[in-house]
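Quick one, T. Sequence first:
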Amino acid sequence: MNSLRGIDEVIPDARDGLTKTERTILYVLSETQKELGGRNVPTVMLYGRVLEHVNISEQELHLYLDRLGVRGDGT
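C-alpha cells:
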C-alpha cells in the first residue's frame, strides 16, 4: 500500500471498521451497479472510476476487493 496516504485512509473507522478507501470503493461500486441496471461491474470500469477519488494501483484495488469479499468478474 502507498505510504503517502493520509492516516484516515488506512486506519479503520470505529463505526463500521472500514477505511476511507474501502468506503469509497464500495460507494463507487454501488453507484456504478445502479447505472448498469444491477448488472455486474467490470473490474476495469470500477478501477477507472475509483481512480477519480483515490490514487491506488490496480493490484491494490484487487487486494481491497478481496478483503471486502467482492467477487471479481475476471476482467
